[in-house]
Amino acid sequence: MNGYERRKQKKMEQIFSASIELFFKYGFQKVSVNEIAHKANVSPATIYNYFGTKEQLYTDSLTNWLDKQLAQYEDILNSGLSFLEITKKIMLLEAENLKILADEFPKFPSSDLRGLIQMMDGYSEQKVVPFFKKFVALGKQEGYIRKDQTEEIIMRYFTMFQNELVRNWEGSNQKWTTENMDQLMELFFYGVAGRAQLQE
Question: Which part of the chain engages DNA, per the record (predicted)?
Protein backbone atom coordinates (compact mmCIF):
# COMPACT_ATOMS: atom_id res chain seq x y z
CA MET A 1 0.00 0.00 0.00
CA ASN A 2 1.54 3.31 -1.11
CA GLY A 3 1.31 6.66 0.68
CA TYR A 4 -1.82 7.80 -1.16
CA GLU A 5 -3.65 4.56 -0.41
CA ARG A 6 -2.68 4.74 3.27
CA ARG A 7 -3.96 8.32 3.53
CA LYS A 8 -7.19 7.37 1.78
CA GLN A 9 -7.67 4.38 4.07
CA LYS A 10 -7.08 6.56 7.13
CA LYS A 11 -9.63 9.12 5.92
CA MET A 12 -12.19 6.41 5.21
CA GLU A 13 -11.75 4.99 8.72
CA GLN A 14 -12.26 8.48 10.15
CA ILE A 15 -15.42 8.87 8.06
CA PHE A 16 -16.74 5.42 9.02
CA SER A 17 -16.12 6.09 12.71
CA ALA A 18 -17.76 9.52 12.65
CA SER A 19 -20.73 8.51 10.51
CA ILE A 20 -21.67 5.37 12.44
CA GLU A 21 -21.46 7.26 15.74
CA LEU A 22 -23.72 10.05 14.47
CA PHE A 23 -26.12 7.77 12.58
CA PHE A 24 -26.58 5.49 15.60
CA LYS A 25 -27.04 8.45 17.94
CA TYR A 26 -29.36 10.66 15.88
CA GLY A 27 -30.65 8.53 13.00
CA PHE A 28 -30.10 8.72 9.26
CA GLN A 29 -32.42 11.63 8.54
CA LYS A 30 -31.15 13.93 11.29
CA VAL A 31 -27.47 13.74 10.34
CA SER A 32 -26.01 15.77 7.48
CA VAL A 33 -22.93 15.04 5.41
CA ASN A 34 -21.48 18.34 6.62
CA GLU A 35 -21.80 17.21 10.25
CA ILE A 36 -20.09 13.90 9.46
CA ALA A 37 -17.32 15.69 7.57
CA HIS A 38 -16.74 18.06 10.48
CA LYS A 39 -16.49 15.22 13.00
CA ALA A 40 -14.24 13.18 10.70
CA ASN A 41 -11.96 16.18 9.98
CA VAL A 42 -12.46 15.90 6.22
CA SER A 43 -14.28 18.02 3.66
CA PRO A 44 -17.82 17.19 2.49
CA ALA A 45 -16.36 16.95 -1.02
CA THR A 46 -14.12 14.10 0.17
CA ILE A 47 -17.14 12.16 1.42
CA TYR A 48 -19.04 12.64 -1.83
CA ASN A 49 -15.91 11.70 -3.78
CA TYR A 50 -15.53 8.42 -1.85
CA PHE A 51 -19.19 7.42 -1.47
CA GLY A 52 -21.26 9.41 -3.95
CA THR A 53 -24.37 9.76 -1.78
CA LYS A 54 -25.34 9.91 1.86
CA GLU A 55 -27.29 6.67 1.39
CA GLN A 56 -24.20 4.85 0.11
CA LEU A 57 -22.17 6.26 2.98
CA TYR A 58 -24.71 4.83 5.42
CA THR A 59 -24.66 1.40 3.76
CA ASP A 60 -20.86 1.26 3.62
CA SER A 61 -20.51 2.52 7.20
CA LEU A 62 -22.97 -0.08 8.48
CA THR A 63 -21.16 -2.83 6.55
CA ASN A 64 -17.86 -1.66 8.03
CA TRP A 65 -19.38 -1.76 11.52
CA LEU A 66 -20.78 -5.25 10.93
CA ASP A 67 -17.38 -6.43 9.69
CA LYS A 68 -15.77 -5.20 12.91
CA GLN A 69 -18.36 -6.98 15.05
CA LEU A 70 -17.89 -10.19 13.06
CA ALA A 71 -14.11 -9.88 13.54
CA GLN A 72 -14.72 -9.84 17.30
CA TYR A 73 -16.78 -13.03 16.99
CA GLU A 74 -13.97 -14.64 14.99
CA ASP A 75 -11.46 -13.67 17.68
CA ILE A 76 -13.68 -15.25 20.34
CA LEU A 77 -14.14 -18.40 18.25
CA ASN A 78 -10.36 -18.72 17.83
CA SER A 79 -9.53 -17.78 21.44
CA GLY A 80 -8.91 -21.34 22.66
CA LEU A 81 -11.63 -21.07 25.31
CA SER A 82 -14.09 -23.90 25.89
CA PHE A 83 -17.05 -23.97 23.53
CA LEU A 84 -19.35 -23.10 26.44
CA GLU A 85 -17.34 -19.94 27.22
CA ILE A 86 -17.15 -19.06 23.53
CA THR A 87 -20.93 -19.37 23.20
CA LYS A 88 -21.53 -17.25 26.29
CA LYS A 89 -19.26 -14.44 25.08
CA ILE A 90 -20.73 -14.48 21.57
CA MET A 91 -24.30 -14.45 22.86
CA LEU A 92 -23.69 -11.49 25.16
CA LEU A 93 -21.97 -9.54 22.40
CA GLU A 94 -24.70 -10.45 19.92
CA ALA A 95 -27.43 -9.31 22.33
CA GLU A 96 -25.72 -5.95 22.66
CA ASN A 97 -25.25 -5.57 18.89
CA LEU A 98 -28.81 -6.62 18.05
CA LYS A 99 -30.11 -4.05 20.54
CA ILE A 100 -28.11 -1.36 18.71
CA LEU A 101 -29.55 -2.45 15.35
CA ALA A 102 -33.09 -2.70 16.75
CA ASP A 103 -32.79 0.90 17.92
CA GLU A 104 -31.35 2.00 14.58
CA PHE A 105 -33.83 0.50 12.12
CA PRO A 106 -36.86 2.65 13.17
CA LYS A 107 -34.77 5.79 12.52
CA PHE A 108 -34.24 4.84 8.88
CA PRO A 109 -36.64 6.26 6.23
CA SER A 110 -39.44 3.75 5.63
CA SER A 111 -39.06 4.23 1.86
CA ASP A 112 -35.48 2.92 2.05
CA LEU A 113 -36.01 0.32 4.78
CA ARG A 114 -36.62 -2.52 2.33
CA GLY A 115 -33.24 -1.93 0.70
CA LEU A 116 -31.56 -1.88 4.10
CA ILE A 117 -33.18 -5.18 5.08
CA GLN A 118 -32.09 -6.72 1.77
CA MET A 119 -28.55 -5.53 2.44
CA MET A 120 -28.61 -7.10 5.90
CA ASP A 121 -29.98 -10.37 4.49
CA GLY A 122 -27.21 -10.43 1.89
CA TYR A 123 -24.58 -9.75 4.53
CA SER A 124 -25.93 -12.57 6.67
CA GLU A 125 -25.86 -15.02 3.76
CA GLN A 126 -22.35 -14.08 2.66
CA LYS A 127 -20.59 -13.64 6.01
CA VAL A 128 -22.69 -14.60 9.05
CA VAL A 129 -23.78 -18.04 7.83
CA PRO A 130 -20.20 -19.17 7.03
CA PHE A 131 -19.13 -18.03 10.51
CA PHE A 132 -22.01 -19.91 12.12
CA LYS A 133 -21.02 -23.08 10.25
CA LYS A 134 -17.55 -22.84 11.81
CA PHE A 135 -19.18 -22.25 15.19
CA VAL A 136 -21.34 -25.39 14.83
CA ALA A 137 -18.38 -27.46 13.60
CA LEU A 138 -16.38 -26.50 16.70
CA GLY A 139 -19.33 -27.35 18.95
CA LYS A 140 -19.62 -30.80 17.38
CA GLN A 141 -15.88 -31.33 17.62
CA GLU A 142 -15.90 -30.55 21.36
CA GLY A 143 -19.00 -32.65 22.02
CA TYR A 144 -21.37 -29.81 22.90
CA ILE A 145 -23.53 -30.28 19.80
CA ARG A 146 -24.81 -33.65 18.63
CA LYS A 147 -23.22 -34.66 15.34
CA ASP A 148 -26.59 -35.62 13.83
CA GLN A 149 -28.05 -32.12 14.32
CA THR A 150 -28.18 -30.05 11.13
CA GLU A 151 -26.79 -26.53 10.89
CA GLU A 152 -30.28 -25.23 10.08
CA ILE A 153 -31.81 -26.69 13.26
CA ILE A 154 -28.94 -25.42 15.41
CA MET A 155 -29.24 -21.95 13.87
CA ARG A 156 -32.97 -21.84 14.57
CA TYR A 157 -32.43 -22.99 18.16
CA PHE A 158 -29.63 -20.46 18.65
CA THR A 159 -31.84 -17.69 17.20
CA MET A 160 -34.78 -18.53 19.49
CA PHE A 161 -32.53 -18.43 22.54
CA GLN A 162 -30.79 -15.28 21.32
CA ASN A 163 -34.11 -13.48 20.76
CA GLU A 164 -34.99 -13.96 24.42
CA LEU A 165 -31.62 -12.54 25.49
CA VAL A 166 -32.21 -9.52 23.26
CA ARG A 167 -35.69 -9.04 24.72
CA ASN A 168 -34.16 -8.90 28.20
CA TRP A 169 -31.44 -6.56 26.94
CA GLU A 170 -34.06 -4.22 25.49
CA GLY A 171 -35.97 -4.34 28.76
CA SER A 172 -32.98 -2.91 30.64
CA ASN A 173 -32.25 -6.28 32.23
CA GLN A 174 -28.65 -6.39 31.03
CA LYS A 175 -27.30 -6.79 34.56
CA TRP A 176 -29.61 -9.73 35.34
CA THR A 177 -28.79 -11.38 32.01
CA THR A 178 -25.04 -11.02 32.53
CA GLU A 179 -25.14 -12.24 36.15
CA ASN A 180 -27.22 -15.31 35.23
CA MET A 181 -25.45 -16.17 31.98
CA ASP A 182 -23.84 -19.34 33.38
CA GLN A 183 -27.25 -20.75 34.33
CA LEU A 184 -28.68 -19.69 30.97
CA MET A 185 -25.85 -21.53 29.23
CA GLU A 186 -26.64 -24.67 31.25
CA LEU A 187 -30.24 -24.45 30.02
CA PHE A 188 -29.09 -23.76 26.46
CA PHE A 189 -26.91 -26.87 26.29
CA TYR A 190 -28.58 -29.31 28.71
CA GLY A 191 -32.20 -28.17 29.12
CA VAL A 192 -34.13 -28.30 32.38
CA ALA A 193 -33.03 -31.92 33.02
CA GLY A 194 -29.48 -30.73 33.59
CA ARG A 195 -26.10 -32.11 32.63
CA ALA A 196 -25.86 -34.75 35.38
CA GLN A 197 -29.31 -36.18 34.60
CA LEU A 198 -28.47 -36.55 30.91
CA GLN A 199 -25.20 -38.33 31.68
CA GLU A 200 -26.86 -41.01 33.85
Answer: 32-51
